[in-house]
Specification:
Layout lengths: L1 H21 L7 E9 L2 E10 L2 E10 L2 E2 L3 E11 L5 E9 L2 E13 L2 E4 L2 E6 L1
Antiparallel strand pairs: 1-2, 1-9, 2-3, 3-4, 3-5, 5-6, 6-7, 7-8, 8-9
Length: 124
């Protein structure tokens, strides 16, 4: 009886360890800001990460004036593709309609991230 209790306890500890390792997905926290330049306008984009949630704010600055900020809220996930490359997958919601989002190349460095080749600096 005592031996079976010890075995059961050992199995439970092993199971909890496996479950905790499986839930250790890469997460980001804080705000990252970058700028995207297009022909006659530039976009200031801020990603704010908290847990698995993301808020993206885009402000357009053009020759004819600045636009109102466009804000998307949704979720994100950092995944590894079959080649071992990191990707970031977004899913957004806007006014009760799901805006799909997408999957993009991802890189993280000291004080920055890159999404689809665009560098976003960590904000304090």
């Amino acid at each position: 009886m005592k031996k079976s209790v010890k075995v059961l306890a050992l199995v439970m500890v092993a199971l909890m360890l496996c479950m905790s390792l499986a839930s250790c997905a890469k997460k980001l926290s804080g705000s990252y800001k970058g700028e995207i330049n297009v022909v006659l306008a530039s976009y200031e984009v801020v990603y704010e990460f908290k847990g698995d949630k993301v808020t993206v704010t885009r402000q357009i600055e053009s020759l004819i004036g600045d636009s109102e900020p466009f804000v998307l809220e949704g979720t994100y996930e950092i995944i590894e593709d079959d080649d071992g490359e990191l990707k970031i997958k977004f899913e957004y919601e806007k006014d009760d309609d799901v805006i799909k989002g997408g999957t993009f190349d991802f890189e993280e460095g000291d004080g920055y991230i890159k999404i689809a080749g665009v560098k976003y600096e960590k904000q304090d």
